[in-house]
Write a structure and sequence with these properties.
The complex is a heterodimer of chains A (173) and B (440). Chain A has 173 residues and is an alpha+beta fold. Chain A is built from five helices and four strands; from the N terminus they run E-H-E-H-H-H-E-H-E. In chain B, 70% of the residues lie in helices and 0% in strands. The chains are: A alpha+beta (173), B mainly alpha (440).
Chain lengths: 173, 440
């Protein structure tokens, strides 16, 4: 199925936010927004769902804790050593390594999941090279709009500060 | 005085071009000269470490009384320096201190290189570095004989390897948007390389949302990690029964000392980066002043810790404790003790003066003095406690050999060599984060 998009470029964050608010208010389907730095207000305007990535940190951390504890429990139980008369299974001495294992697996779980979630996405070629420099872009899905609508939308965006508007057709799915 | 975190009128494009230019353009002659000099040091390091690996640590000035000396001093010094980077990127992120934005990248890189240097010391200290895996809890040919989990040295293996790997991850994830910026600014093979490294970063709102969420979680995880690492390093000493080591003050005292020395090294490097890459607009006097304030606070904490140690040694009524501290003050290593005191306790006190803490030359000087002082702190703790222990017949002195000195000079060169490569191939200032500072 072919999909049609309008890419509106801005050189100021304020114009971007104003336009975005207007578009969302008029229930126009926003495909994506591209910015050179994170802007929290966009997430609020688009009502983006919170990412589930921190959950992986929790899972990884819990796994690290269980793994670390069980490893040490198994090993100290497996070959009991008398060290200065301390208990054969020294639970208190387990704390630092349990802690480090929790942090290690937690950090790597969320880190790897993050990298996988952004890794070489197919839609990364929509944007132009100034998005990572000094421009902002709103990508609007206009597949369901007729030519007049698209023309009107373009005019509105242009009069509201957009510096450049492109149309692109993509073969999606 | 200008109080801003970013000087001059910089458009976003200016910021991109300025910060990317050392990466995209060919390096100047000063960079090549510095790289060449540091490479000579790396060769010296290579010669010394190969000799130590081949002949063993008998090449060092160690003896049966002073079994830890220059090696562990340098190890603790490097690990301490490696604390500032993650502290700046993690703790200051959690406290929403936006002055970290321009300095976090190089501080994090510094952390990673400092920990690499620390690891080389651990490896060479082992004597038989090819058996390093004996420190890990692996099944082995002795039957099921596992490592001793009561030992802080085993905790250290976990703590430092976790610290290193998490720091690398945090650093790399923070780099991704900036690598994408370089990808979009460069051409040819360079573009392909940075395109690969930036993992297809598309700068979309969803990516930024994930990026921020991951950064926050990693900061939250790294904060206790930073504190735990030097706490565990201090336990290497504190859990022993050596007078002068066996104290409960060690963990907070070591953590404060680590931040102190780490910030001093960040100052040294940032002043050089600022000057050589012409980043005066991004690393401003305000940054230098704020870091000097951290140096002042942590230096004062370290000073209080020294005095507390002296007080407790007297208050403990333990003749051994008392003797160790008297021996530090007026024994054969008195000069090391007084260098430590002057550099760490007195020199940061100049930072009370606004005029001095905003003076770049003075700051550079103090940062080097603090680094010297912190090296001597570890030397004093390790060598003076060991060289005169419970048995006067085994009292002796420690003198470093050529190999110890050359390894130290070599490790500093290795550190600078890696740092020079870093400022050439990666953006030394976080581009997207600096852009955030320019928002109205």
């Amino acid at each position: 199925m072919y999909k049609k998009y309008i890419i509106a470029l801005f050189d100021d964050e304020i114009y971007l936010l104003n336009n975005l608010e207007n578009l969302v208010k008029n229930k126009i389907l926003i495909d994506n927004v591209y910015t050179p730095y994170p802007i929290h207000k966009i997430e609020k305007i688009l009502n983006l769902k919170k990412t589930k990535l921190p959950f992986f940190a929790f899972i990884g951390g819990s796994l690290g804790l269980i793994l670390g504890f069980n490893m040490m429990f198994y090993m100290t139980n497996n070959w009991p050593m008398n060290i200065g008369g301390k208990p054969y299974v020294p639970f208190l001495s387990f704390i630092p390594i349990c802690f480090e294992m929790t942090i290690l697996l937690s950090a790597y779980s969320i880190g790897i999941m993050f990298i996988l979630s952004i890794l070489y996405k197919k839609d990364s070629d929509i944007i132009n090279t100034r998005i990572t420099n000094d421009q902002f872009a709103i990508v609007i899905d206009v597949s369901n709009h007729n030519i007049d609508n698209i023309y009107m939308l373009k005019n509105i965006l242009k009069s509201n500060g957009s510096i450049d508007i492109n149309e692109k057709i993509y073969d999606k799915k | 005085m200008n109080n801003s975190l970013i000087d001059g009128k910089n458009s976003m494009n200016d910021i991109t071009v300025n910060i990317c230019s050392p990466v995209i353009n060919k390096p100047n002659n000063i960079w090549w000269a510095c790289l060449f000099l540091s490479f000579l040091g790396v060769l010296l390091w290579g010669y010394s470490i190969i000799s130590v690996f081949y002949y063993g640590i008998g090449l060092w000035g160690l003896n049966s009384t002073v079994g830890w000396a220059w090696d562990i001093t340098c190890f603790v010094w490097w690990v301490g320096i490696g604390h500032a980077g993650t502290l700046i990127s993690a703790i200051l992120l959690l406290f929403r201190q936006n002055w970290r934005n321009s300095i976090n990248r190089s501080a994090e890189a510094m952390t990673i290189f400092a920990v690499i240097c620390a690891l080389t010391y651990i490896l060479s200290h082992m004597g038989r570095p090819w058996l390093f895996y004996w420190a890990l809890p692996l099944p082995n040919h002795f039957g099921p004989l596992w490592v001793n989990f009561n030992s802080p040295l085993v905790w250290d293996v976990f703590a430092i390897s976790t610290y290193f790997s998490v720091s690398v991850l945090f650093w790399y994830i923070g780099l991704i948007p900036d690598l994408a910026t370089i990808r979009d600014q460069s051409h040819g093979i360079k573009k392909n390389i940075y395109s690969f490294l930036s993992l297809g970063w598309n700068s979309s709102v969803k990516s930024w949302h994930k990026f921020e969420s991951v950064s926050l979680v990693l900061a939250g995880l790294s904060t206790p990690l930073v504190i735990s690492v030097h706490t565990i390093v201090s336990c290497d000493f504190a859990t022993s029964v050596i007078p002068g080591w066996h104290t409960t003050i060690f963990p907070p005292y070591f953590v404060a000392g680590a931040i102190f020395s780490g910030f001093a090294m960040v100052q040294t490097l940032l002043i050089i980066v600022r000057k050589s890459l012409n980043f005066n607009n991004y690393i401003t006097i305000r940054h230098i002043e704020l870091m000097n304030l951290v140096i002042l606070v942590t230096g004062s904490i370290v000073g209080v810790a020294y005095l507390t140690e002296l007080f407790i040694a007297w208050y403990s009524v333990s003749p051994y404790e008392k003797y160790v501290f008297l021996n530090r003050i007026k024994g054969p290593y008195y000069w090391a003790y007084w260098i430590m005191m002057c550099c760490n306790v007195f020199s940061p006190q100049f930072m009370w003066s606004k005029k001095l803490r905003t003076n770049i030359t003075f700051t550079f000087l103090i940062s080097i003095i603090v680094n010297i002082g912190m090296w001597f702190e570890r030397f004093v703790i390790i060598v003076t406690s060991l060289h005169r222990d419970y048995l006067p017949s085994s009292w002796t002195m420690f003198y470093p050999s050529f190999y110890e000195v050359s390894l130290f000079i070599g490790s500093i060169s290795l550190f600078l060599f890696l740092f020079l490569l870093f400022i050439k191939f990666l953006p030394a200032v976080a581009i997207s984060e600096v852009k955030l500072l320019t928002r109205k």
